[in-house]
Model the fold of this input.
Amino acid sequence: MCIQRPLILISNDDGHLAKGINELVGFLREMADIIVVAPDGPRSGMAAAITSQVPVTVSLVSQSPGVDIYKCSGTPVDCIKLALETVVPRKPDMVIGGINHGDNSAVNVHYSGTMGVVIEGCMKSIPSIGFSVCDHDPDLDFAPTRTYVQSIVRQVLERGIPVGTCLNVNFPQYAPYNGVKICRQTIGCWENEWATIPHPRGGGNIHWLTGNFANHEPHSTDTDKWALDNGYISITPIQIDMTAYPLLEKMKNWEF
Amino acid sequence: MCIQRPLILISNDDGHLAKGINELVGFLREMADIIVVAPDGPRSGMAAAITSQVPVTVSLVSQSPGVDIYKCSGTPVDCIKLALETVVPRKPDMVIGGINHGDNSAVNVHYSGTMGVVIEGCMKSIPSIGFSVCDHDPDLDFAPTRTYVQSIVRQVLERGIPVGTCLNVNFPQYAPYNGVKICRQTIGCWENEWATIPHPRGGGNIHWLTGNFANHEPHSTDTDKWALDNGYISITPIQIDMTAYPLLEKMKNWEF
Done:
């Protein structure tokens, strides 16, 4: 009997050389064939951006048994779009973004290039997962995430998730973890977002993005931020339909 | 009696010189004070991207009674973040993205820099609206949109919309319009997305983003695509909470 191995398409927003994506490949290569199509350098905070003004390129970096790695000059979403049309031999069984160096919980889902990858996979009706660790250290130890990543990937491959939905998985900064919590997206926003300094050559200021996340519901125990703040791995199921249905019904009474 | 005029913060993804944003200012300057902080050039398809690797700048372009126009070196979302912390004299009563040259209905909400502007305003608890016309012509005639834009802005200022929600308004390519429909986001995705040609200097191919939108539910009359295809202005209420609640409940039975 010959059972085809699953095919997993992987990308990220930290670039193909980042530790997180290469650790992820190591965690999954025993259970699946893997194709990586990742940016040729860092693309953090690129959200679901696409490259519309200039052309993009994709080129093979390395091949080893069951693992092909490509780099792409575009955004994380470009990587998935280009991989699906020009690289993969068949429709992948899964798209994964990560493992990201940094927290993608709460409203970060909107800014994250890693989640851009996942949302694009989801749009193409492929079960898709984003993995992130709440730590920006480029040399982070990803070993504690291994068994959880494998278990989550295996279960999604076996059970499936509904078309139009995907998963945003975040690991706390420090292991050991207290377990896994299925969460909703925390309500909150970033504050004090700019470090402003005079331009070194004069003529005005320059502004660096920084800031701190303000959790508007710190006592809600069902949110992804609460889970992460309390040592749990958060899994936030995400949908690409952003319609606000209650407001839709209400606005039917407005007159234009 | 002195009633303060509303303050509206406007940005876009076509840049501060685009016709659409300047027409919008003309439509609204009688009813509100206006501050424009828009990209210094085209940023189409930038979604909710933020600039994390390099600093950004903002500088005054022009001032006329009730209208200040600034340009910013960053993304559409950077424009709003920077405006709110360093430009506006008080919290704006509204954030508007547009008027965009091009369709932002259906899943385009995820890719659109115009809707990035709107989602950012919404995150900051400011009533926010995106306006787009389904036509990329840089010299487009925006006059048919005028009374609708004014009516929608006035009603949102008066009635308000719930925190965490915003509006994605799209106009059909051709006027006169058949009216306004309150819609949900169409299910579908882009297909045949790449025009591939050999690199003019050899060594491989280059890929230009193109493609066509595949409407997966062309006969559903409650979607924004259906409205636009049938001559109606679509208003799609959008929420920033992307949690997939039905899947959340289902996954509580999974074991990790």
Q: What stands out?
A: The radius of gyration of chain A is 19 Å. Residues 7-184+220-251 of chain A form a domain with the Stationary-phase Survival Protein Sure Homolog; Chain: A, fold (CATH 3.40.1210.10).
